[in-house]
Amino acid sequence: MSITVVCKKAGYLLEGPHWDDTNNLLYFVDILGKAINKWDPVRDTIEKYDVPDQSIGAAVLTDRNNMLLALTRRIAFLDWRTKKLFDIQEVEDETNTKNRFNDGKCDPAGRFWAGKVCFNLSTNPSMDTQTSLVMLHRIIPVLFKLGVAASTMGPEEELGGVLREQGQLYCYHKDRSLTVHADKISISNGLAWSSCRKFMYYIDSMKYTVDVFDFDLESGQTSNRRVAIDMKSEGIPDGMCIDAEDMLWVAVFNGGKVIRYNPKTGEKLSELKFPTLNTTSCCWGGPNYDELYVTSAEHFLTEQQLKEQPTGGSVFRVTGLGVKGTKSDIYNE
Questions:
Q1: How far apart, in Å, do the first and last CA atoms of the chain sit?
Q2: Is 15 annotated as contributing to ligand binding?
Q3: Of the residues 15, 107, 214, 271, which has the maximum number of CB atoms within 10 A of its CB?
Q4: Are 168 and 180 in contact (CB under 8 A)?
Q5: Which residues carry out catalysis (predicted)?
Q6: For the segment 245-276, what is each residue's pLDDT rounded down to a tens digit?
Q7: pLDDT tens-digit readout, 278-297
Q8: How far apart are CA 98 and CA 106, in angstroms?
Q9: Which burial class, exposed, middle or buried, applies to 27 when counting CB atoms under 10 A from its CB (0-12, 13-18, 19+)?
């Protein structure tokens, strides 16, 4: 097994890796840098698109060679060739500045799923989402050291400027309609679907669990949400992907690792350690889907940590795992 850096110092808060299996390219977003990156592994070049005036929570390919974006409070399409946004849809009133999209992914039927995180700006209107996130990710590790679990916090409390249980998980359908499938979300994150298409896995980071829904592929309906994996002893679950054996790979923020789990039993199967603390998400790629790409963040590291962890904010490639993954599904326009 080998872990190498393929995109060094590529941004502040890298997330949402998405493998283009038609052109063998890797896309990933920089949420706080407000950018989408496209890495060509053959030429070893990165092409960047700067999103105007919006943070970018997720970006996926479509069947018409466009990209579908989850911006701060908008869903929009991007023509990468012209770098033009089109069909922009407001998800909430523009005066609601408390929340933004955080992560998203397509299901095997081609719908787009994305959820939100909500910030409390009322007590300090000058506090932006970057400052709130910095506070959040500095406070959470302290709580872990003190043995304070998320369940001990009251429903009206907040952590690092993030309001608990104020977000939603949305599904964006082919007809451009939106449906809500979960509410009372704190920090919406990883998504994955089982090979039988009967289960959808989902992470709300402040629950410190991976949950599972019963899933109907034809309608996109979800039901019977319950805990599949308890991660309170490991750290903050962030993005994830699933392999060909239906095992989940979960990136652990403030843990510097990706953990492979059996979601049916909750058993921890293996662990990959990285040379930087804030691993954020992962996806499968390469011609044979046997390469694991892992994103990370440098923005929440202290000055000392930045010196000790020069690969923070990089993209890693893991090979020789002995297991193959699944493709990154695209949106059906």
A1: 38
A2: yes
A3: 15
A4: yes
A5: 238 (proton donor/acceptor)
A6: 999 999 999 999 999 999 999 999 999 999 99
A7: 999 999 999 999 999 999 99
A8: 25
A9: buried
Among the listed residues 238, 243, 290, 329, the single catalytic one is: 238
* Residues 168, 45: Cα–Cα separation, whole Å: 36
| Structure tokens belonging to residue 14 | 């890298």
For every residue of 24-85, DSSP letters joined together read TEEEEEETTTTEEEEEETTTTEEEEEEPTTS-EEEEEEBTTS-EEEEESSEEEEEETTTTEE
* Residue 131, both tokens: 């400052």
DSSP 8-state class, residue 261: E
Please name every residue paired with 313 in a beta bridge, in sequence order, or none if there are none.
none
| Residue where the block lists tokens 């506070």 | 135
Q: How far is CA 110 from CA 61, 180, 230, 331, in A?
A: 10, 17, 29, 4
Between these two residues, 220 and 95, which has the higher pLDDT value?
220
Is 238 an annotated catalytic residue? yes
Is 102 annotated to bind ligand?
A: yes
Q: Any binding-site annotation on 100? A: yes
